[in-house]
Amino acid sequence: MKIALIAHDGKKADMVHFLSGYKDKLQGNHIALVATGTTGLHIEKAGFKVQKLLSGPLGGDAQIAALAAQKELDLVIFFRDPLAKHPHEPDVQMLMRICDVHHIPLATNLASAELMIQQITTTPTYEQ
Ligand SMILES: O=C(CO)COP(=O)(O)O
């Protein structure tokens, strides 16, 4: 199972805090984490093993979308900052669209991420 993690700058602390609550479950061998570049750095510093792609504005969102299109992702957690402008907004929209096209679960805020991660980490197939 592979989970993609992305957070806009105003939400990176929220992402690290969120993941810290699931550290035990997320560090199992059957769950791989992949993230956009700067989000990945923050996650790594918090002690997680994570594959880092390009930074979002440099194509990281597009790389995550490509993984989703290839059905290589089981969940995308994307903490968007709805109060900030982003030069790569078309990439953000494209990523969300691709998730919808391919029926990839997409959590764009803390409340939905909590629900989805609890579900996915307690699904018997994925339990350690
Ligand atoms: O910009 C992002 C999402 O749109 C996230 O990119 P970074 O993780 O590199 O900051």
TrEMBL record:
Enzyme Commission (EC) number: 4.2.3.3
Recorded coiled-coil stretches: none
Residues annotated for substrate binding in this entry: H8, K12, T36, G37, T38, T39, S55, G56, H88
Cross-referenced SMART domains: MGS
Residues covered by the MGS-like domain: 1-128
Origin superkingdom: Bacteria
BP GO annotations: methylglyoxal biosynthetic process
Annotated GO CC locations: cytosol
Catalytic activity as recorded in UniProt: dihydroxyacetone phosphate = methylglyoxal + phosphate
Annotated catalytic residues: D61 (proton donor/acceptor)
SUPFAM superfamilies linked: Methylglyoxal synthase-like (SSF52335)
Gene Ontology molecular functions: methylglyoxal synthase activity
CDD domains the record matches: MGS
PROSITE patterns to which the protein is assigned, alphabetical: METHYLGLYOXAL_SYNTH, MGS
Sorted UniProt keywords: Lyase
NCBIfam families: MGSA (TIGR00160), PRK05234.1 (NF003559)
UniProt function note: Catalyzes the formation of methylglyoxal from dihydroxyacetone phosphate.
HAMAP family: Methylglyoxal_synth (MF_00549)
Family: Belongs to the methylglyoxal synthase family.
Name under which the protein is recorded: Methylglyoxal synthase
Organism: Anditalea andensis
